[in-house]
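Handout, page 2. Input:
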Amino acid sequence: MIYRKNKVLEALKKDRVPVGAFVQMRCPEIVEAAGNADYDYVWIDWEHGSFEMETVVDMIRAAEATGLTPIVRVPCGQSAEIARVLDAGAMGIIVPQVSDAETARQVVAAAKYRTREYDAGRRGACPLIRATGHQTLDWPAYARWANENTTIWLLVETVEGIRNLDEILAVPNVNAIVLGAFDLAVSMGKDGDRHHPEVERVLDGMIERVRRADVDVVGLLFDADLEGMKSSREHYVRSGCRILVAGSDRRIISNSFSAIRGLVA
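Output:
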């Protein structure tokens, strides 16, 4: 039996903050670089990334080859999207624009198999998929393992979502809420200014409400410079975030090009 490890869940059990890399570019080698840099997981951004499903599978392979846990942000949370990435070997999903409890319930049902222990699952069952080792794993054992080890993260990033946050948090089997700071700032009429005092106040309130419900919070460290990222990291962890995603491939590469160009100009 070959089962993979969800390094995010393992880190949390050891009270350690897992750190992920954010990848949007059509390049499995970037995923490998993150794995070689000893990140815990990779956020494969199928929503805003410049690639299709074939590349998602290649990125999952690259993650597995370098010890990363692959977690995929799907474009809109439809059950078919969720099934495809999990069947391909993703060990978690990130669903954008979740603004009500019914959407949250549909996402959870789409990500879970129906088993004797869990009858609310609606994920399509197929023993032939890549995630089962191409039909080499025992199906009942795999289905139970998948239900226990698949990470479900919801992006709450609208004013409506904030209003309905307590109802969303009451949905069973949601592992974490992701702080969608930029979209939230747009939704609040702040033109994407995630450091606006009103936006920061709402985000801090979200963290408190989510942790009070015993659900984890994912903080995004997308500052333009390392000192800003360090400051955000300290703030988020101090506020209760137990999962971080640090840096995006586009930002890291652009910053490096700019820094080198400045040195040699």
